[in-house]
Design brief:
The protein has eight helices and six strands, in the order βαβββαβααβαααα. It is of the alpha/beta class.
Length: 190
């Protein structure tokens, strides 16, 4: 199998690392060689966070270059735009429509870009945008955006719902299990 590349992008504190851990677990359980690389940046200050997940028969490097990502899963719409050049032709960006103001916007140095969904689509990119925050809140907490987005991503894979649920069980604490399973299903159905 040819190596497949997935980027998970967001801002610090959104749960990108848990999402990559969950995805890595399910891919390993299916017998793939998996490499995961995390780039934190200024994650503790709300800065950009990127995780690369590469899988296939044999993966030699965890890094994804520009134009190589089959999927980009974005926890925030500006991050989707920021990393769009890493998407390969025919690839898909799955994004949360939520807007998280970066520091230059917070301090008034610039404005948050307008109409980002339309701008991304105008580039000819396959964009699958959902309000993952609203779905996470419906599941019980705004902190489940990451699992909602994994549910949305699951629609692009042949893995069973049971496969995904097993990976969730292995990745989240027991006391949050039902909430995360609900969040996953809401994302999958979105």
């Amino acid at each position: 199998m040819q190596t497949k590349n997935i980027m998970i992008v967001g801002v610090g504190g959104q749960g990108t690392l848990l999402a990559s851990k969950l995805l890595g677990r399910i891919l390993l359980s299916k017998g793939y060689d998996v490499k995961v690389s995390e780039v934190h940046g200024m994650s503790q200050r709300g800065g950009s966070v990127v995780t690369y997940v590469r899988y296939g028969d044999k993966v030699y490097s965890p890094v994804i270059d520009k134009g190589e990502a089959d999927y980009i899963v974005s926890f925030e719409i500006l991050e989707a735009a920021r990393w769009a050049e890493y998407l390969k032709d025919g690839g898909t960006i799955i994004t949360n429509t939520q807007e998280v103001n970066p520091m230059p916007v917070i301090i008034g140095a610039c404005e948050y870009p307008k109409e980002l969904e339309a701008k991304i689509k105008a580039l000819g990119i396959n964009l699958d945008a959902i309000d993952a925050l609203a779905l996470a809140e419906e599941a019980g907490t705004s902190k489940a955006v990451n699992i909602v987005l994994m549910g949305k991503l699951s629609k692009y894979f042949d893995f069973t719902e049971e496969d995904w649920m097993t990976a969730i069980e292995q990745s989240v604490p027991a006391k949050f299990l039902e909430l995360n399973k609900k969040a996953f299903l809401l994302g999958k159905e979105a």
